[in-house]
Amino acid sequence: MCGIVGYVGRSNDSTALEVVMEGLARLEYRGYDSAGVALVDGDHVETRKKSGKLANLTAELEAHPLAGSTTAIGHTRWATHGGPTDANAHPHRGGRDGKLALIHNGIIENFHALRQGLLADGVEFSSETDTEVVAHLVAAAYDERGDLTEAMRAVVADLEGAFTLLAIHADQPGVVVGARRNSPLVVGLGDDANYLGSDVAAFIGYTRHALELAQDQIVTITPDGATVINFDGTPAEGTAYEVTWDAAAAEKGGYATFMEKEIHDQPHAVADTLLGRTDASGRLVLDELRISEEQLEAVDRITIVACGTAAYAGMVAKYAIEHWTRIPVEVALAHEFRYCDPIVSERTLVVSISQSGETMDTLMAVKHARSLGALTISVCNTHGSTIPRESDAVLYTHAGPEIAVASTKAFLAQITACYVLGLYLAQLRGGSFADDAQSVMKELGEVPAKIETLLGRMDRVKEIARFMADTRAVLFLGRHVGYPIALEGALKLKELAYIHAEGFAAGELKHGPIALIEPGQPVFVIVPSPTAEHGLHGKVVSNIQEIRARGARTLVIAEEGDESVVPFADEVISVPATSQLLAPLLTVVPLQVFALWLSTAKGLDVDQPRNLAKSVTVE
Ligand code: M6R
């Protein structure tokens, strides 16, 4: 959940600190409770750290500047052990001479026992963190071995839990050592300088050449290159790759917030995720999956594992995949999956969905599924991340970097990738929907332009959000694929505007939730297309009448030209027409815009809402 940056170069000047601070600015979305930097300064390491946002650290550095250096590390924190105070902020120094500085992402599960051992040896602690324990252990190991890589190797053997660690030592300038287990770390390869980061955003301003590390590996960077070994000391090699986006993609591009920019990126996110997935004849080709057609044809059950917004993308996918393939699909919250004794066989396909590819709950669900013999596919937006590595295959979404904590464009890209997967399976199985796959792909290809049109009509939604700045609770209703969109609308509002918000399946109303309706209660209703199967449209219009009769303020999202909702709606938000299963790619957009502007109207931090972090890398 924390952001980690490491840099080593040749010039003994301000470059190291500048690179690390720029990396922290790009990684701040990962955690923003406190931030700190350390660099080698002659015969010692110097640190500066401050609780609160990165701006506080910047002010601290202006008040107490650091000397030039070739070697620096930096950290932005989401607190786990110990509150977000200056003392608990990373880096932590280790050893009696304080020559080592270390930063950490993750949780050291056996830190208490290790700390007791150090206390017994007379070590004094200046923080409550599990990280400081590791700093002292690595410092002691360095004193014995005289080499930072070897010291790190000796210590990681005793650590339990998930961690990325970076360390520098005053006696070994020009070296940064990193280690990872179940927590992200990528290497950036530059000219005369090399980088480490929780993700490539840390160094995207300097290089697009990256190296992916496997589990349980240690990397040592110097200005000359990067050396990788396994925790057991055997030599290893990272997997080199090129980052496909540049620094501009990780900037706001003229918008006030990343979230607003990312909402506007959505037509591209969908279009890019569709790119290259059909051949000249329009047939779906997913060679990248590297799973044999025989294996996929044998699948008799699909389980989707994910958390938060990604799980709602999975719920949308369930309706589509079951409809097209007739394979039963179950959606499990990843953190529940492992503990519910899941029914999994070698004919079960477990599809994980994750923007970051680092969500620990999802990663653990994938590992559990594999241990039970399932075939695993990761739908993921982040190259070089852990979940794709730990899966049998990956279907990348191409949303580009998503920086705002609230997920928007990744959600649309996830739904799109799941549609592609569902249509591919339908095509393979040759059922009645195999022939339809091409026409659905064609219709999907028209969606980006429809999102663009919709985004051009959001002024009224923005106004509604402003008027509703004092609202205390909002309800969201939907049916069929509109149900997960209702859940997503509620989640966006909770996380961004700190408003109590609930999403319901509209059919469930009369089974309890209708008791919540009182005069003036705002309720968003996602209405299916009048052409939807099984008369669903009429049923939802009846639901609107029922809540309106009880005083609800109805904010209705309906297909353009659907006049039947007008008499019962306080506001109608029209979305371009599309077939029922694809409608979520459009109906969610006004809800994202609503949450963005309500949060803005309340004067809140849209991109970094309180208590949250972009990737949840602890369980
Ligand atoms: O990186 P992931 O897609 O695995 O993240 C899953 C959730 O943590 C994430 O979608 C979260 O719910 C978002 N903050 C919602 O906007």
Automatic annotation (TrEMBL):
Q: Give the SIS domain ranges.
A: 292-431, 464-609
InterPro entries, alphabetized: GATase_2_dom, GFAT, GFAT_N, GlmS/AgaS_SIS, GlmS/FrlB_SIS, Ntn_hydrolases_N, SIS_dom, SIS_dom_sf
Catalysis performed (reactions): D-fructose 6-phosphate + L-glutamine = D-glucosamine 6-phosphate + L-glutamate
Q: Which UniProt keywords apply?
A: Aminotransferase, Cytoplasm, Glutamine amidotransferase, Repeat, Transferase
Q: What is its EC number?
A: 2.6.1.16
Subcellular localization, as worded in the UniProt entry: Cytoplasm
Gene Ontology molecular function: carbohydrate derivative binding; glutamine-fructose-6-phosphate transaminase (isomerizing) activity
Question: Has the keyword Mitochondrion been applied to this entry?
Answer: no
The Gene Ontology biological process terms listed for this entry are: carbohydrate metabolic process; fructose 6-phosphate metabolic process; protein N-linked glycosylation; UDP-N-acetylglucosamine metabolic process
- Glutamine amidotransferase type-2 domain boundaries: 2-224
- Report the SUPFAM superfamilies cross-referenced here: N-terminal nucleophile aminohydrolases (Ntn hydrolases) (SSF56235), SIS domain (SSF53697)
Name any GO cellular component annotation.
cytosol
Task: Give the highest taxon in the source lineage.
Answer: Bacteria
* Active-site annotation: 2, 614
Q: How the protein assembles, per its UniProt entry?
A: Homodimer.
Task: Name the job this protein performs.
Answer: Catalyzes the first step in hexosamine metabolism, converting fructose-6P into glucosamine-6P using glutamine as a nitrogen source.
* The protein, known as: Glutamine--fructose-6-phosphate aminotransferase [isomerizing]
Origin organism is: Humibacillus xanthopallidus
- Which gene does this sequence derive from? glmS
